[in-house]
Amino acid sequence: MSNQKKRNFQIEAFKHRVVVDPKYADKTWKVLEHAIHEIYNHNASGLSFEELYRNAYNMVLHKFGEKLYSGLVSTMTSHLKEISKSIEAAQGESFLEELNRKWNDHNKALQMIRDILMYMDRTYIPSNHKTPVHELGLNLWRDNIIHSSKIQSRLLNTLLELVHRERTGEVIDRGLMRNIIKMLMDLGSAVYQEDFEKHFLEVSAEFYKVESQKFIECCDCGEYLKKAEKRLNEEIERVTHYLDAKSEIKITSVVEKEMIANHMPRLVHMENSGLVNMLLDDKYEDLGRMYNLFRRVPNGLLTIREVMTSHLRETGKQLVTDPERLKDPVEFVQRLLDEKDKYDSIINKAFSNDKTFQNALTNSFEYFINLNARSPEFISLFVDDKLRKGLKGVSEEDVEIILDKVMMLFRYLQEKDVFEKYYKQHLAKRLLSGKTVSDDAERSLIVKLKTECGYQFTSKLEGMFTDMKTSQDTMQGFYASHPELGEGPTLVVQVLTTGSWPTQPSSTCNLPSEMSALCEKFRSYYLGTHTGRRLSWQTNMGNADMKATFGKGQKHELNVSTYQMCVLMLFNNAERLSYKEIEQATEIPAPELKRCLQSMACVKGKNVLRKEPMSKDIGEEDAFFVNDKFSSKFYKVKIGTVVAQKESEPEKQETRQRVEEDRKPQIEAALVRIMKSRRVLDHNNLISEVTKQLQQRFLPNPTEIKKRIESLIERDFLERDNVDRKLYRYLA
Amino acid sequence: MPRASKRKAAPASSSSVTAPPPDQSRSRTAKATSKTRLKESDQIDNLFDTYANSSLGQIDPEGIETLCSDMKVEYTDVRILMLAWKMKAQRQGYFTKDEWQAGMKALKANTLLKLVKTLSELKKEAEAPQNFEDFYSFAFKYCLTEEKQKGVDIESTCELLKIVLGYQFPSQVDSLVEYLKVQKDYKVINKDQWMGFLRFCKEISFPDMANYDENQAWPLILDNFVDWKKQKSGGR
After folding, report:
1. What is the torsion angle, in degrees rounded to the nearest 10, for the CA atoms of residue B111, residue B113, residue B114 and residue B118?
2. In degrees to the nearest 10, what's the CA dihedral of B62, B66, B71, B76?
3. Inter-chain contact B192–A713, Cβ cutoff 8 Å?
4. Could you give the 3-state DSSP secondary structure of residue A527?
5. Where in the numbering of this chain does the DCUN1 domain appear (chain B) (predicted)?
6. Using the 8-state DSSP alphabet, how is residue A211 labeled?
7. Pick from A209, A212, A206, A207: nearest CA to A224
8. Any CB–CB contact under 8 A between B216 and chain A?
């Protein structure tokens, strides 16, 4: 800036800054105020944005920001008060529409005002910690309109009224609702929640409380659930259409609580339509619905599971203890399998394969299957039946399916060693009588058992198969080396390794001379090739095919047991034989002999013998004749096959006793194993270790374990610790 | 077998031999006392010979009976058993010379009179808490007359219980004996069970048996006993 030379120039540029014309501010403000009025009166088109902006800018620049701001506040406020009146004046339906319209207007106005006052917004306001224009506009709207005493409750009530009407089936203007709600949301979440959502939830709770009470009185469980589901979906849809997304979870909780959680017990236990009935009738859809609804509430699924479990256990318990059922083991097991299939289906189709439900199913089965001590025996009989005839003509895949199902039941058994004992017996009978439908099926099951229980479980069973094969080879060798025997009776011998087959005490029996000679020849042949072995004939396990010609020339081929053969051969040399004579000649023990004679003299269709007197029981004084009048429509007559049957009481006791005896060394072996590795162990831990080790085969009785421990102490394998009486010590 | 010690404790002249610490003091072997010592051990030997069966070289049951009647003590008196314990007698009904000598010396008795006097001391000693278990255990072993015998029959066990535990735990012993006679599970009692009885009397409150836990390592026979007793008294 030059000074002396250019004194004649007076730069007046800064004059404006210095001059503080009080009237200036007023004048400028008036301009702006007028503009605001115009804007609110929808007359904005005549305004010059640039001029207004400049005015505002200047005011702020000249430090009149305060005036501008407070002017803005008061102007807007007064406009809003007017607007408020016009909204209040609206009647009925138009209330919301008016509100909406005014809101839109306000927003537009606010937008323009903000643009005009942008400089203030950016400078004066932040540095003076004032509320920005836009926000100010919203707050003023909130305070003057929404919270005005005449509008606030009316607005809320109107909204709630509309929701209620929609819930009762009317159609409402969703667009309008959406706009109003959005307005509340724009005003801040506090406004939305305080002025709407909170009340909305309360009222909804009340509504659903009442409705659920009404429904539950008149609907059955399935219908109720349908309605509940419908309501739930409605609410979700409502939120999507016109509420804040965050409200969804809140309103659904309300519905869930009022309609489901509060009525859960009543629903589940509803007579004739509750959970149990659904299970019984396989109502997959209803069950699925129940599952989906209940999983939303705390303990919902737990409730279903508990009821299902107790029902299943009760049903299962009845199944296994019903005396009628117990008469037919095959039927018994089939019912168990059917029950399992049923529930598998339910869990699959309705409970989306929920693992906790599968576990509940497993636990329940484990519980009731072991209530009946004969379950292991019956399962073995079931398998026996299938392998004898049930699986005839069934495809390979289906065979696998059935066997897998049986394995599932097997897994539930606690006393697997009892099963093993019976399975061995039944398998032995099947193999020896040649009555198995499919060798592959037999082997397949053995493999499954091995996978489940380990090699030891099945090694003996496999030994039995090996024996059968070896015997075949032996027979071939025998006849190859004795070609002269081709003419006489054919002998088929199965050589059984003692350890592998179930032990049967073999009793005396005098074979007819033709047979005994043949047997001797075999014996010397066998011992010739296998030195150091001993053979003992098991006459109680054999059978024979005999050709017989009766009085009128009828020819039949009889398939009989060895005992029966011995008896019948006697009649080649005698017409009449008394019981005593038969007994003497055959030396078969009395109970077996009586049974054998009974099956040949007292059974219709198999009475190849005639007895005097004709009574059903065998008396010591009875006399026997060949029944010349014997007739049968079949050429081949089967008398007395050795079929596996459900054991009689005394047999059952015996088997049970043998199983118990077998368990003792197993318990002891486990005890020694554990103590050897641990050296010192206390009583309770020892018991639990032993139980764990043995649980694959059976559940040991703690009392029995104690007995074994004491036995081991007596035999100096273990000792009690001197100081701490709970400890056991291994004695090397 | 402990070798018969030639050491003596207090001078032999004092007749009251108070409760041991036995054989603690090493006596000064003065020539004067050696004579007395010899004399005493002679006395012990002589006493032995009085009762011994000469062909056996041991005191046999008959001899013990005579000894008892001389001492005016019942044959079945528990103190005789305790005497056997003190002697560490190996075979029921017999005392060997070594055992006799050891026992008498331990009791500081060389005459019959002294022996009688020491019996009451002996009883106290055996009953002392630190010794009783040892005595109790010995009592059982003493009844195993056959080689390799592991158990004592029920009848004898009952008698033994009465003698050994009867005065300390009368009600327990009565109940136990009653039970042992009616139960059928065991015909013989083994060492483990025998020791269990003592533990039971010492640890379990009676007759309520409230602190008995059958899930603990008690011998099975005691589990059964507790069940039986509870059923008898009508409790479940």
Report:
1. 140
2. 40
3. yes
4. helix
5. 39-230
6. H
7. A212
8. yes
**CB contact at 8 A, A59 and A30:** no
Query: What tens digit of pLDDT does each residue of B83-113 get?
Result: 888 888 888 888 888 888 888 888 888 888 8
Q: Taking CB atoms and an 8 Å cutoff, what residues of chain B touch A714?
A: 150-151, 190-192
HEC sequence for A283-325: CHHHHHHHHHHHCCCCCHHHHHHHHHHHHHHHHHHHHHHCCCH
The string of DSSP letters for A30-80 reads: HHHHHHHHHHHTT-GGG--HHHHHHHHHHHHHTT-HHHHHHHHHHHHHHHH
Tokens representing residue A236 in the block: 């979700």
Nearest to A683 among B191, B199, B216 (CB): B216
Q: What is the 3-state secondary structure (H, E, C) of chain B?
A: CCCCCCCCCCCCCCCCCCCCCCCCCCCCCCHHHHHHHHHHHHHHHHHHHHHCECCCCEECHHHHHHHHHHHCCCCCCHHHHHHHHHHCCCCCCCECHHHHHHHHHHHCCCCHHHHHHHHHHHHHHHHCHHHHHHHHHHHHHHCCCCCCCCEEEHHHHHHHHHHHHCCCCHHHHHHHHHHHHHCCCCCEEEHHHHHHHHHHHHHCCCCCCCCCCCCCCCCHHHHHHHHHHHHHCCCC
CA distance A465 to B98: 69
Question: In Å, how far is B224's CA from the nearest CA of chain A?
Answer: 10
**pLDDT at residue number A666:** 92
Residues in chain A closer than 8 A to B195 (CB atoms)? 720
Question: Which pLDDT value is given to residue A226?
Answer: 93
Token pair recorded at residue A391: 């699986």
Phi-psi region of B57 (alpha: psi -120 to 50; beta: other; left: phi over 0): left
- From chain B, the residues in CB contact with A722 under 8 A are none
Summarised one tens digit per residue, pLDDT across range B19-77 is 444 444 444 445 556 666 667 778 888 888 888 888 888 888 888 888 888 888 888 88
Pull the structure tokens for residue A609.
């013998």
What are A133-174's pLDDT values in tens digits? 999 999 999 999 899 888 898 999 999 999 999 999 999 999
User: Which residue is listed with tokens 């702020």?
Assistant: A60
Task: State the DSSP code for A257.
Answer: I
Nearest CB among A707, A714, A725 relative to B217 is that of A725
β A718-720/A727-730 pair status: antiparallel
* Closest CB from B150, B217, B220 relative to A720: B217
Identify the bridge partners of residue A546 per DSSP, sorted by sequence position.
A558
- pTM attached to this predicted model: 0.71
Q: How many CB pairs under 8 A join A and B?
A: 36
- Give chain A's end-to-end CA distance (angstroms, integer): 116
Contacts of A148 (CB under 8 A, 6+ apart): A84, A88
Query: B192 vs A707: CB contact, 8 Å cut-off?
Result: no
Q: How far is CA A529 from the centre of its chain?
A: 58
Contact B215/A684, CB-based, under 8 Å?
yes
First to last CA, chain B: 51
Per-run averaged pLDDT (10 residues), chain A, 732 residues? 58 57 83 89 86 89 88 92 90 89 92 91 91 92 90 92 93 92 92 93 95 92 93 94 93 93 91 91 93 93 94 92 86 92 94 94 93 91 87 82 92 91 88 81 90 84 89 89 80 87 79 87 89 86 86 87 90 89 88 84 83 83 87 84 61 85 92 93 92 89 90 89 86 82
pLDDT tens digits for range A20-45? 666 888 888 898 999 899 888 888 88
For residue B16, pLDDT over 60 is answered with no
Shortest CB distance from B220 goes to which of A687, A703, A720? A703
Put simply, the answer to whether B223 touches A706 (Cβ < 8 Å) is yes
Beta bridge partners of A549: A555
